[in-house]
Amino acid sequence: MLSSGRTVSSRLLRPASWLPFRLCPERTAVSSMPKELIKKHELEKDELRPLYMDFQATTPMDPRVLDAMLPYHVNYYGNPHSRTHAYGWESETAMETARKQVADLIGADPREIIFTSGATESNNMAIKGVARFYKAKKRHVITTQTEHKCVLDSCRVLEAEGFTISYLPVQKNGLLDLELLEASIGPETSLVSVMTVNNEIGVKQPIKEIGQICRSKGVFLHTDAAQAVGKIPMSVTDWKIDLMSISGHKIYGPKGVGALYVRRRPRVRLEPLQNGGGQERGLRSGTVPTPLAVGLGAACSIAQKEMEYDEQRVSMLANRLVQKIMSEIPDVILNGDPEQRYSGCVNLSFAYVEGESLLMALKDVALSSGSACTSASLEPSYVLRAIGADEDLAHSSIRFGIGRFTTEEEVDYTAEKCIQQVRRLREMSPLWEMVQEGIDLKSIKWTQH
Amino acid sequence: MMAASSRSQVISLYKAMVKASSRFPSYNYRTYALRRVRDAFRANGKVEDPRAVEKLLEEGQQMLALIQRQVSIGQMYGAQRTVVE
Fold this sequence. Notes:
Chain B: It holds the Pfam family Complex1_LYR. Chain B: InterPro entries: Complex1_LYR_dom, Complex1_LYR_LYRM4, ISC_assembly_LYR. The complex is a heterodimer. Chain A is 38% helix and 12% strand. Chain A is α/β, with parallel strands linked by helices. Chain A folds into two domains: 63-302, Aspartate Aminotransferase, domain 2 (3-Layer(aba) Sandwich), CATH 3.40.640; 307-443, Aspartate Aminotransferase, domain 1 (Alpha-Beta Complex), CATH 3.90.1150.10. In chain A, helix 5 (149-160) links the parallel strand 3 and strand 4 (164-168). In chain A, helix 3 packs parallel to helix 8, helix 4 (119-133) packs parallel to helix 5 and helix 8 (290-328) packs across helix 12. The model of chain A is unreliable at 1-30 (pLDDT under 50). By secondary structure, chain B is mainly alpha-helical. Chain B has a domain at 22-77. Chain B is 74% helix and 0% strand. Chain B contains three helices and no strands. Chain B has helices at residues 4-21, 27-43, 50-77. In chain B, helix 1 (4-21) packs antiparallel against helix 2 and helix 1 (4-21) packs parallel to helix 3 (50-77). The A-B interface holds A 1-3, 8, 47-52, 60, 63-64, 66-67, 309, 364-365, 404-407, 409-410, 413 and B 24, 27-29, 31-33, 36, 39, 66-67, 69-70, 73-74, 79-85.
């Protein structure tokens, strides 16, 4: 159903306080309200919901997943670890079915799957757990500069404990240089952690080749596959992955659940973070939340069945979006490798436009300039800086997340609004004016005053 | 050519699924369900083997029940219209 007439655009209020640099002549409309409040207020006035184009932050739950979970929220409430009655047994059966569904998606054995609270916990467990277990002989861990915050932060903790960490730089296209990786692995190295698909720019690291290198050097490979599992075909056997983090809410499953794959042969050992009743092979004590585990299992099984269908659609929509925007406005840069990527994550930099202003202007589309964890700060993304994006381009990037439930209409609407707002913001930008007059911005000496 | 009886069963299942899907209050679920149902029937349009048809019909019936349940749940909590509707 298409409703007519209702427009959502209205003049934007801009408090000067949160602008990192002064570009906009609309500064007269100064208000002390924080930007979230303004945006919220504007939306409530219009009574319409913005479009959701932020599938890397989280995905809506698939109705099929909710349908699988509900019985375990209603009737089957037993503790899956209770061995003495039917309530426990039925929950255990459901949990083991879910474990198998997760394992099947990544080509693993169900016994290699540990349920966790999400990819952050899985990453913490894998990195700290492996490093600490082998610390007597090996005290070196390798990762990259574009990893998710939870990987980098776990490494910082290890550093404080006396481990050496190599944060490898990535190339301009966001991919890890395999020769650099090979040269960085030493006799002290216990673990290499590289994410499969980057959450901000969507590039796909050559995990298969990295797995080969790690196996030949006798080093464990951990990969944060939160953004990759269920979206691109993955096999822990073929890719020689030793540990893999999975998240429920990135694959149309419930929030608050994830999994860690831990290889059995050759065996990977890790020190648990959480001690207690010895559930999950003693690696993650605590009662497994049956409904969430069932939801993760259902999400994995649906992802496996729908992978090809989803992939075709998502890449079609992504191409449509990029083509529409790039054909209409100049100086738009696609961040990250154009080939080695997951198509559903489109990160564009609009030169001479400040990303935050664009996000504010596109208030009827739910978008983000990078990861949700850092979306409150105005700092440019460290991922974009790691791929060598200039400061100004890093400030002008927007991430478009496309997924299973995105429609053509949403893509067209987003593209149209984006084109319109970029044009408007550029028109009022003195930088854009200077570029049009042929002045090279890099030649200007900005003085502080 | 599949048997006439199963043909009519397929058609009525398709109609029922489209009808149920169109009642999802959420814009994104509704458009997805309609698209997915249509594409699944199209993809299986060439299936002739009566046993395979039987199996697909059974799966379809289960999916229809699922859609009906989820539509009811969706209707309980209401959904705001999005800007493209």
